[in-house]
Amino acid sequence: MIKTKSAITMAILSLLFTVAISGCFTAHETAEQTTTPMTTVTQKPSDSLKDGLRDIPNYSIVITGGNISPVTLTYADLLSMDFVDTGNVSKMKMSGSGIETTADYAGVPIPAILARAGVPSGNNTFRISAPDGYEMDYSQTQIASAILGLKQDGAPSTDDVNAKNAIVLVMPGQRGPMWIKVPTKIEIVKA
Question: Is it the case that residue 34 has pLDDT exceeding 60?
Fold first, then answer.
């Protein structure tokens, strides 16, 4: 009964959040989008999701193009934010058909990270970059369900872009190339 109430509460909060920010973004897609009916988001005490995480002093994420720009969030700043727990998140194969991997992630919702810089009204896209130069553009629809995964299957992630358990942009139901490892920059681009 408690799990059901928590799931319903989380669904309502997610819907309210999506409606609240829908005027801040464009519905224009910059990449193919698929959905994952298996993904679940659970409401747990945020502090318990942070168990085992330690500061990574060299990791930060810079947000440019916001109402306050630039904004730099350190790993310690991210740890001070509310976490969400996603279960059974599927990363699609490069071809877009079939599942490459499925895992549980805990981390900070990307919309909460963007809110720290203030997202300008109107049409925006979001260019997210990694330290190795890899970058992708995302739409509001894609970003709305994304999280910065700081834990995978209960284990802390690392800022090593080559590690299997690297910090990752979790994009439920999206193809592997959209899951950027160790994102360090988000550029809000006015369309």
Answer: no
